[in-house]
Amino acid sequence: MRTIGVRSNILVAIAAACGVIAALGRPWYGPPLPATGAEMEDMFSGIGRALLDPGGTSGWDALQTADRLVAGLAVGTALLLVLALIPAVQRFAAALARWTALATVGVIAVELIAGPDAAPMSELRHGGLFALAAALVLLTCAWTGATAPSRRRTPVKAYAPPPPPVYEGGDERPVQY
Fold first, then answer.
1. Considering only CA atoms, which of 99, 131, 128 is closest in space to residue 114?
2. 88: which DSSP letter?
3. pLDDT per residue over 63-116, tens digit each?
4. Could you tell me the sign of the dihedral formed by the alpha carbons of 43, 48, 50, 56, in that order?
5. Is there a contact between 59 and 28 (Cβ–Cβ < 8 Å)?
């Protein structure tokens, strides 16, 4: 099975960072409907609203200060992966890219688990799920891109042909049977 290369991983990581930032513009939380008493129906209607309801508070408004942290970590990860293409700083930039991608996933997960401060906006919407998915793709690409072998320039060895074979006896030709 063939895997994608380091440069392709970096391009996907840039796209995932853009996806995290785009998800901040989508609704993260919305108002829940009042309970009807039918627990299963309430649960499935909540899942449907989380995936399909276009209304709600965007991530930029709901996360207050964490929104800039999430955006900065995502952009920082993409920039560090681009810097990892330079052999002189590859080791340091790639290792730091792993940590910033992991921090991006962590901040988004904490914000999704903690929920908003306002009780009327307490139901999850698709923007938060999309941000979490894009952050996981960013983490995967950063991890794969960071584990790429270093590309140090090694001097090219001059070709030295092997010595000619030595045959038994004084004859220079091989014995044929």
1. 128
2. T
3. 888 889 999 999 999 999 999 888 888 888 888 999 999 999 999 998 888 877
4. negative
5. yes
Residue 29's DSSP bridge partners are: 57, 124
Q: Report residue 138 as tokens.
A: 């960013």
64 secondary structure, DSSP code: T
User: What CA–CA distance (Å, rounded) separates 129 from 109?
Assistant: 10
**For residue range 124-161, what is the model confidence (pLDDT) as tens digits?**
888 888 999 999 999 998 888 767 676 666 788 888 89
Within the chain, how many helices (H) and strands (E) appear? 6, 3
CA distance to 163, 167, 174, per residue, from 170 (Å): 17, 8, 11
- Give, in order, the Cα–Cα distances in Å from 138 to each of 94, 100, 102, 151, 174: 13, 10, 9, 23, 63
How far apart (Å, rounded) are the C-alpha atoms in residues 174 and 5?
Answer: 49
Q: What is the DSSP letter of 58?
A: E
Q: Using alpha carbons only, what angle is made at residue 124 by residues 120 and 126, rounded to the nearest 5 degrees? A: 130
